[in-house]
């Protein structure tokens, strides 16, 4: 079969070998994931500022499309916490929450994000995601988790509060604290407590009771459904909605509707940066889950095709009443653990959620939003992990600065400013680090042909020779630094007649660095000092040989540093 | 003497050893530079959109302050073409040219730029200038030269035209071409032609006549003064100003006045980015001239102190009726060639110009602006050098792209957009390049302990071992690429039991890369494959040893690749 077609439609590869045993495994996994996803997808719609049904819609068509275009066998695509938060942050700046325009803008955001992802996949631009360093992502996720949890407190307490960063949220909550609805607060606190207990306390109990790991895991996953059923029943039985407990209310009984996003240029322009950030964050979250799970079965993930898969899923979300989606960590792990063999498990999950959207929505009329908020809080607090601060501090102060800045700015200014500052800072830190590369002056270790740092070892040197070893590729950001260093070293020492650059650690020399080498060569010539090179790597030498630099070089090029010193002294 | 004081006040160092012979040399150089600077400084004021006297003022106090704070013995500080163009571009967006607000905004721009430079010097942030790669600067200077020349055509032709990029200028010139003042055009064309001839044609003639090199050089430098005198006399004698020839007009006879820039926060905010760009461009231009000249006398330039020197010079310009200044290429070379021994030459030049400002300004009343425009055009066309396109193309397509983009965007959109795009593009290109590092799978050369690329050499490999050599430091932008490559290589080959990373070219591993190595180790463990490291550099090993990574590593760390293969097979 056409390999190009298989690259773009991975379903053609696994679909041909689909077995009855795969079917059984996929159906089981789909059942478990569906049960987990019903409360989760409602909750994330709430987080994104959308009506509850949008969460179900966003979990149906996108997951089916990903099954066709994605390369991971286990990834479950749908609304996730951080992306939902970013969606709310992006849209609230532009349109008022709860309006029709808000829902349409959500469709546009998903569509735009989808187009960006597909384009990045087709042009193989996945490397852009690499600019998000691990520390920045870890800091961002932690800070987002805190903001999300804080943003849900209003639902737990039954008050209103606004804000897209921690300060705004805390101030707003504090101001409205007088209006607490105590029944809502009781439901919220009990639900949150119960869910925490299910996570931390129930598992050991069940295991002690002698239940198998599989059954234990399944029962723990039922926790959210139990809370949903219990609190819904309570509101319905005691008529608590009449006493001020906010409920989900009427949800249309419907399959995902066909929707069209707005193509207003002004709107799209405002959404462009948020859509880009959502795409990148979503992709990074998704690909790392996908690769971790694929490794367990020695399967391969194609990052560029993943971009296409996620992009098509988002375009699907924008056409079926959804909002931005990506591969989620917890649901994918559940899917994998439940034995999902192929992406068909995702398709079956979609069928399960479609049935829920058609048949079960009347049952959640009385579901309190406080319960959904409790689900979110318990889910996101597992994202909060301050240990990254300690670990990065131990490893490298620069990385620590990137984490700390990302966390602080995300908390203080919101998600977009936080992630942008984090990326900018890590790029600047990288440039700064490589702009002052380690340059050692070296001499010969007595009795050997090895050359070592004169500051660390007792080595043999010659007053007329300065040998510098640059431990970094030469490029524009550090080329001028080398000029400065050489000029500073030679200008003050009238005995120097030869400068040897030991190039063993130089993997590349860009055009700027070539011009700097020419400048160094010219300036040394003015001082009557010769410039020599030693241990130049093959590809670097090939490049240099094409240019006039080697003709102009006042000195010579030596294969080894030892030969260089011998040759110069001879 | 206090070394800290000497660092910040280099005059304390050279001033103590000042000799009578230095005085003679400095006075001669100052005389020649003064003659050269009078027309040039008037012209650059015109280019910056300011009254002619601003050019003189900007050449007096700044050069004296630089003499106190700067480290170059030969640098001549004052208005230069590119910075004047950037000044005009920055100010015209904010205030109307010719108004009082415009001149005040110019003072603010110089002051802001001065503060930025001093701050960068005190905090040793000179490395920021390194992000301007050679190709980007070369492209920018070339494009700026073209824009400057085009912007002066209106003065040559005696028409009006507006615009800060080539397209705007050409359209505007074309529209007004009907209004040519033919007398102005005659003066302009003759002056331009004469100046070109002085540059290219006069020198050989004089040399043939047997004049010495020094006298020839001096006579050639008199060219602009000759044109100024001749055209001024012509306008005065024939009363051409009454026939539409634009003249400089009344210039106050005065020493530089004491002025205060505007501190309006709104204005300063609008000027911040332009001031930053002007500071960086000015610094880069200045430092490369300074270093080239210093090398000829084996002197040392301190880049951080240079920032302070230029910064104080600009603050001086803002307090004495000037505009942004920097070290100029041509005047510094003239200063050096004329024998300037110390920065005192600059101070004497300032005295010369102060005398000119006091005594000679009535003489330039009838000086036609077309003559000044001719001076500018001839000066800047020497900046235009398209050979950078050819040279960078030959060396590296990425560098070529950076040059071409910078030239095109500067011409099309103006100086600020051009330089910003160039910097952004070269940073992105660098990140892109290092995000896909060269990773070679290597095998043992028969009969040796060397390991080479399996694609290039006939080498010995073992089906259970994959050895990868990464030719780049590992950091966030390429860490995930390594994950992808290893996963892709191992997932498809069931025989692999060991992956060895040959780390001989890895100069650094940042925190992101460490986390990636942990992920690789974990994923390989899932596939029942061990990860080993070989030839890890000392500092990298020190870092790794502080972390838990080495404890978790499924395989071992070997001193050499040869030992690694032996150890794994044993």
From TrEMBL, chains A, B:
This is Sulfate permease. It is a multi-pass membrane protein. It is found in: Membrane. It holds the Pfam family Sulfate_transp. The keyword Transmembrane applies. InterPro entries: SLC26A/SulP_dom, SLC26A/SulP_fam, STAS_dom, STAS_dom_sf. GO terms for cellular component: membrane. The chain crosses the membrane at residues 27-48, 101-123, 135-157, 177-198, 218-238, 271-295, 307-325, 345-365, 372-389, 401-429. Keywords: Membrane, Transmembrane, Transmembrane helix. Residues 455-568 form the STAS domain. Its main location: membrane. GO terms for biological process: transmembrane transport.
């Amino acid at each position: 079969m056409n390999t190009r077609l298989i690259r773009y439609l991975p379903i053609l590869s696994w679909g041909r070998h689909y077995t009855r045993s795969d079917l059984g495994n996929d159906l089981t996994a789909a059942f478990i994931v569906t049960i987990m996803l019903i409360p989760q997808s409602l909750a994330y719609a709430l987080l994104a500022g959308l009506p509850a049904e949008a969460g179900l819609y966003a979990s149906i068509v996108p997951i089916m499309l990903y099954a066709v275009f994605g390369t991971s066998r286990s990834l479950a695509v749908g609304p996730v916490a951080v992306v939902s938060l970013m969606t709310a942050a992006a849209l609230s700046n532009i349109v008022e929450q709860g309006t029709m325009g808000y829902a349409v803008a959500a469709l546009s955001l998903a569509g735009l994000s989808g187009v960006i992802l597909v384009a990045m996949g087709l042009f193989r631009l996945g490397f852009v995601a690499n600019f998000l360093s691990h520390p920045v992502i870890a800091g961002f996720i932690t800070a987002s988790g805190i903001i999300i949890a804080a943003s849900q407190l209003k639902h737990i307490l039954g008050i209103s509060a606004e804000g897209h960063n921690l300060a705004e949220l805390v101030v707003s909550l504090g101001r409205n604290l007088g209006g607490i609805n105590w029944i809502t607060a009781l439901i919220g606190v009990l639900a949150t407590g119960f869910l925490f207990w299910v996570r931390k306390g129930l598992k050991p109990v069940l295991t002690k009771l002698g239940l198998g790991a599989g059954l234990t895991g399944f029962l723990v996953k039922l926790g959210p459904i139990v809370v949903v059923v219990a609190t819904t029943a309570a509101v319905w039985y005691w008529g608590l909605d009449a006493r001020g407990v906010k409920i989900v209310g009427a949800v249309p009984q419907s399959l995902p509707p066909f929707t069209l996003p707005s193509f207003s240029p002004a709107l799209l322009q405002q959404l462009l940066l948020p859509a880009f950030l959502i795409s990148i964050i979503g992709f990074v979250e998704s690909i790392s889950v996908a690769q971790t799970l694929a490794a367990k079965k020695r399967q391969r993930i194609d990052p560029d095709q993943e971009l296409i898969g996620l992009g098509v899923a988002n375009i699907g979300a924008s056409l079926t009443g959804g909002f931005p989606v990506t591969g989620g960590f917890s649901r994918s792990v559940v899917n994998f653990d439940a034995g999902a063999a192929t992406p068909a498990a995702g398709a079956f999950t979609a069928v399960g959620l479609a049935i829920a959207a058609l048949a079960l929505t009347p049952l959640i009329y009385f579901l309190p939003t406080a319960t959904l908020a409790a689900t979110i809080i318990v889910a996101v607090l597992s994202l909060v992990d301050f240990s990254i601060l300690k670990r990065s501090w131990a490893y490298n102060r620069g990385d620590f600065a990137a984490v700390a800045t990302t966390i602080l700015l995300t908390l203080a200014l919101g998600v977009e400013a936080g992630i942008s500052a984090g990326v900018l800072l890590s790029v600047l830190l990288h440039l700064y680090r490589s702009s002052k590369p380690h340059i050692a002056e070296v001499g010969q270790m007595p009795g050997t042909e090895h050359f070592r740092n004169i500051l660390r070892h007792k080595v043999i040197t010659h007053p007329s020779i300065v040998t510098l070893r640059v431990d970094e590729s030469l490029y524009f950001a550090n080329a001028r630094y080398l000029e400065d260093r050489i000029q500073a070293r030679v200008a003050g020492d009238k005995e120097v007649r030869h400068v040897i650059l030991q190039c063993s650690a130089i993997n590349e020399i860009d055009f700027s660095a070539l011009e700097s080498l020419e400048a160094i060569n010219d300036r040394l010539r003015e001082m009557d000092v010769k410039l020599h090179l030693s241990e130049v790597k093959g590809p670097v030498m090939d490049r240099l040989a094409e240019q006039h630099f080697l003709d102009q070089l006042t000195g010579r090029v030596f294969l080894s540093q030892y030969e260089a010193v011998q040759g110069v002294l001879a």
